[in-house]
């Protein structure tokens, strides 16, 4: 797809090297069509790595997508150059008066931190409440899914005793749901979290459509009836070596991590891992963009309102 991002963004050269169509602002303006406006709230420490991963998945669609990067606050970070943040990232104050077709909220390394102890919890609440009136569909990923369930359904934090890490086997529950169109009956997806999402618990305490589950990892995909909120408890955006790097990091910190499940050939950490989730990840984001965003959003974002959404698939 033509994805429109700043030419100087590090992801631009990476994506172009992968034959992904990255469009210049001049060419986008000449096409005479309205691109989808998607806001990416990046909560991960290594922002350049994470933004590249998500931009790669947003590229698998014929729709033109204009992506803006959002940070949660202006605190300095040791993992991303300040110049990069100042150049490419928006503060919430800069976008709060605008409407967007889509919002993606990434995961965050906060699995063992209580919500009230998260330094930017008030900012998360503010942005998620703002999204109700300014965003057509929001995609919550990993930790953000847990935060979204807290804010939308007042579900308490549920923490596993051991970290869930690996590539897990999932099955879909409604092959006709728009988010799952084109999915095989079963598929693999990576997880790296302490959060607990059981299907029984979500069925009991929410009205969400449970779309895909794993016997080991619990709920992977869920969505509200109107598709305005989609929850992904894993990490379809991960690169092939992301779990490997996390494993090495945790081991170096003396955490005695388990070997990621179904990741290394023969569970041998000296073997190169193989990505078995790329196709499903691209399809998931393509479906979200098409059926939850493009098919639902008003043509003129200035006319954003609850009444502008259709119930059609």
UniProtKB/TrEMBL annotation:
Biological or metabolic pathway of the protein: Amino-acid biosynthesis; L-methionine biosynthesis via de novo pathway; O-succinyl-L-homoserine from L-homoserine: step 1/1
Organism encoding this protein: Photobacterium phosphoreum
Record protein name field: Homoserine O-succinyltransferase
Family from the record: Belongs to the MetA family.
EC number: 2.3.1.46
Site (Important for acyl-CoA specificity) residue list: 111
Pfam families tied to this protein: HTS
Residues annotated as site: Important for substrate specificity: 192
Enzyme class, broadest EC rank: transferase
One cellular-component annotation, GO: cytoplasm
Catalyzed reactions per annotation: L-homoserine + succinyl-CoA = O-succinyl-L-homoserine + CoA
Top-level division of the source organism's lineage: Bacteria
Role: Transfers a succinyl group from succinyl-CoA to L-homoserine, forming succinyl-L-homoserine.
Keywords: Acyltransferase, Amino-acid biosynthesis, Cytoplasm, Methionine biosynthesis, Transferase
Gene3D superfamilies: 3.40.50.880
HAMAP family associated with the record: MetA_acyltransf (MF_00295)
Residues the entry annotates as binding substrate: 163, 192, 249
One example of a Gene Ontology biological process annotation: L-methionine biosynthetic process from homoserine via O-succinyl-L-homoserine and cystathionine
A molecular function GO annotation: homoserine O-succinyltransferase activity
Localization annotation: Cytoplasm
Record-linked InterPro entries: Class_I_gatase-like, HST_MetA, MetA_family
Statement: the UniProt record of this protein carries the keyword Amino-acid biosynthesis: yes
Active site: 142 (acyl-thioester intermediate), 235 (proton acceptor), 237
Annotated signal peptide: none
